[in-house]
Design goal:
about 70 residues, single chain, mainly alpha
């Protein structure tokens, strides 16, 4: 995971990010791969760090980035 050591989030924003990650993971087919979760989490962290606070928007952006991520 990329370095987000300079990012600071309030407890409320952490709850929003957690909800977005949970919702995004729930849309993935089984089995869910750790690499996919990592891409989703990084996207949500990056987007929230840029100021987004809408769960649905965080989820949508993360899922789009997952679709665009190179396959390993």
């Amino acid at each position: 995971m990329k370095n987000f050591s300079n990012a600071e989030f309030s407890p409320e924003v952490i709850e929003i990010m957690s909800a977005a990650l949970t919702a995004a993971i729930a849309t993935l087919p089984e089995p869910v791969h750790a690499g996919h979760v990592d891409v989703l989490a990084q996207s949500i962290l990056r987007t929230a760090n840029a100021g987004e606070r809408d769960v649905a928007v965080l989820e949508r952006i993360a899922l789009i980035e997952l679709q665009l991520a190179p396959r390993s």
